What we know:
CATH superfamily of the domain at 9-81: Glutaredoxin
InterPro entries: Glutathione_S-Trfase_N, Thioredoxin-like_sf
Structural class: mainly alpha
Protein name: Glutathione S-transferase
Strand content: 5-15%
Distance between the termini: 34 Å
GO molecular function, one term: glutathione transferase activity
Low-confidence stretches: none
Domain GST N-terminal: 1-78
Pfam family, one: GST_N_2
Amino acid sequence: MIGDKTLSSWSLRPWLLLRHFQVPFEEIALPLATPEYQARIAGYSPTRQVPVLWDDTLYVWDSLAICEYINERWLDGRGWPADLAARAQARAASAEMHSGFAALRSQLPMNLARPPGPAQWDAAAEREIT
């Protein structure tokens, strides 16, 4: 279960992993910030946030946890680089993106539907960009 892929990078991450490796799955997309979202997500995610993956009776929430589960369950480790050093760097970058860049995400959230044009941000976001 995911949110709008044009607005939710959290939802997009496991979706891209599944698609890239051609893992069959059923996509259920919920409209974000609607009464329907609140009503439907409550039964699937303890955090009431997307994404959430369910595999039989197991529910996995949080995009990074979902990607790790996908990697172990269906990819035999192919979701990360085979080389130890490259894998460590990839995990570090993923963890940093997952837990960092608060100012950047707050001021410049993902919006693939936004018309192209200049954007504005403050010094905190600038530090995270550079």
